[in-house]
Each structure stands twice: as C-alpha cells, then as structure tokens.
Amino acid sequence: MPKFASISVDSQGQKIETRHEAASIPEVSSFLRGRGFTPVSIKEIKPEAFSSQVVKELVALLKQSRIKMSEVAVFFRQLATMLEAGVNLSECLESLSSQTENQNFARLLRQTREYVAWGRRFSQALSEYPRIFPPLITEMIAVGEEAGLLDEVTSEVASYLEGQIDLKKKVVNATRYPMFITGFFLVAMGVMVFYLIPQFKQIFASYGAELPAITRFVMNISDFLIRNLAYEIILILGLGVLGLGYLRTGKGKGALDRIKLKLPVVAKLIYYLVLARICRTLGLLLHSGVPLVVALDHTAAVAENVVAENAIRETRDGIVQGSTLAQEMRKQSFFSPLMVGMVHTGERSGTLSDILPKVADFYDRELDYRIKALTSTLEPVLIIGIGVLVAFFVIAMYYPIFNLTEVMG
C-alpha cells in the first residue's frame, strides 16, 4: 500500500507531521479531517525515498545518546506536576519534548504526542517503546487513564523509577572502592611481573650467584607468565566469550543467579535488593489498581533474578487456582518469613498495597546497613591483603640485595 507524509494543523494551530499507509491522497485527507485536523500538505513517499529516510533516521538514532532511566524518571516527575496543574496531556508532551536535552528522547516524546493527537491512549503510545517504557509502566498508565487518575499514577511511576535509581546507586557505591583497589593491585602486579622482575633478573644474573628460594620462586612465576603470554590472552578471551555466551542462555543466567544467592558476604545484599524490588513493584502496581495476577506477572519480569522470577510465577499460578498470596508465598523458600507474614496481615486487613512499600523500606534500610558494614570491613581487609602480597614480591626482589655480599661470593 502507498505511503504518504502529511503536514496538518490541529485545533490549537500547532503543526503535526505524520505518516500514513492509504490507497490515495483523498483517503489521507478524509482521515485527517475526521479527527479534527486541517491538512496543509500531503505527499506520497516513493519506495526509494522512504527507504532512504528510514536509513537516515536509523543513523541519526545511533548517533544520539541512549535514554537513561534518570531521564525517564525526570520526565514522569515533570509530567505529573504539569498534569496536577491542569495542563492537558498533549501540551505537556509538547512542552517536555522541547525541554529535553537528549534529542533521541525528545524525538520519542514528539512521536508520542502525535500518537496521542491521533486519538490513541497514552499507554498505547508508550507501549511502542518497550525498552524505554516496560509493560510494568504502561500497565500502570493504562489503569490511571481508566480511573481518571493519570496525574497520580505518573507521580507514582516517577517515585518508583527514582527508587530503582537509588538502589542501583547504593550497589555501585558499595562496589566502587573495592573495584578501584583491585584494579590498582592488578596494574601494580602487572608492572612488577612483566617489567620490574625481569630487570632484577638481569641484575642478579650478572653476579652469577645462587639466589634465595623465595626470589627464584617469584622469578619462575614471572618467566612462566611472560613465556606463555599469548596463550594466556587467548585462554582468557576464549573463556570470556564462552562464559558470556553461556550466561546469555536461560540455563546460564539461572545458574549465575543461584550462585549469587549463595556467595559468602554478598548473598544477603543481593537477597535484600531483590526482595525490596519485588515488594516495591508489587505494592505500586496494586496501589495503581492493577489486578494481582497481572501485577505478579509484571513483578516477575523486573525481579532481575531467575530464582525470584520462578518463585513469583509459581505463586501466581497458585493464586489462579484459588489460593491466597500469603499461602502461595509460604510454599516458596525464596520469600522471607517476615515478607510472608506482612503479606498475610495485609491480605486480612485489606491493606496489602500499603504494607508492601513498608516492607520494601525495611529491606532498603537493611541493605544500607549491610552495605556500610561490608564497606567498612572490606576496605582494611583489601588494603592489608594487597599490602602483604606486594610486600612478598618486594622482599623477594630486595632480599638478595640486602645480602649482596653473600650473593657476590
């Protein structure tokens, strides 16, 4: 079917550019007028021109920066504020698209406004971009539209996204210092093994004396690593590619998620992080009016842990059979007794949507406490451990110098 590009004007005099698939120009014109738009220009897009335009748009899209979760959170926060002030949705989208610095996001918002202008629901327009607006968000927006509470729901979406951003920041902050120390150690060891130790070896070789066992041991390690460097690089790259390929499979991801929940020290951090995400997401969906079974589906999709996802889906299946949420959660070993007890209380009192965010807050506080405790414990342990290893190599290299007379003899 032929494709057409149109320029029309709405009732407020704003210009709108859209594309259509229709049999003829009159059909496009009739379509526009039927929705209250005044056609200004309608032109047929030739197949070559259309393909060329698509390529240009794809290239432009790749050049733009990716859309961050923080940008989406700011968008919903600003949208909620404007809707609460009585500004209509179309004007909100027009204003926010012009204020957005990320041109990729601005283009998306302009397209969303056009969808809304054509009579599509806001939730349907957002569902065109599932990577930016996942089903969890579009489902909430749809419920808000049905209930006439779009301003409240967009505010809740903004709060939810802000909470997820805070959780990620906590994890990043907790791992930043240990990763820096570990990286510094690896660089230092690389310099010693591949540069300094060979230099010392040449110096000691000029004396032709018997070296201490500790020095020979370190030099043998250095020789082995240097001699087999090419094989080591190939091995590391090969294992990395195979590992990443395996982790992309469902079986591999499940195995990794199960290992994460059994790792010493960090297992509790990951567990509390997942529980907090589950409680906050489920509570938000229920508070927005999303049915429990649908809410559990969306919660499972954002759990970011296969073990948790399976537990949620099995819980959902039990509820479909007529059981209660607390009864089904109790059957799953993944959910903590505290969480199950609070859910049971919420179901009995009819306040489940209010209790779940409080449970999430509890796990957030536990997560904060454990991150601080882990960081304060890990820092000195890492420093001492790295110091011992570096000292070992330094002593191994300088011990013969301290006994220079014996070595020269």
TrEMBL record:
Q: Which PANTHER family match?
A: GENERAL SECRETION PATHWAY PROTEIN, TYPE II SECRETION SYSTEM PROTEIN F-RELATED
Family statement drawn from the similarity comment of this UniProt entry: Belongs to the GSP F family.
Q: Which UniProt keywords apply?
A: Cell inner membrane, Cell membrane, Membrane, Transmembrane, Transmembrane helix
Q: Where in the cell? A: Cell inner membrane
The UniProt entry, under InterPro entries, shows: GspF/PilC, T2SS_GspF_dom, T2SS_GspF_sf
Pfam family of this protein, just one?
Answer: T2SSF
Q: What is this protein called?
A: Type II secretion system protein GspF domain-containing protein
Q: Where is the Type II secretion system protein GspF domain?
A: 75-198, 279-400
Its taxonomic path starts at: unclassified sequences, metagenomes, ecological metagenomes
Where exactly are the transmembrane stretches of this chain?
A: 177-197, 229-248, 381-401
One GO cellular component from the entry?
Answer: plasma membrane
Q: Tell me if Electron transport is a UniProt keyword of this record.
A: no
Question: How does the record say this protein sits in the membrane?
Answer: Multi-pass membrane protein
The organism is: marine sediment metagenome
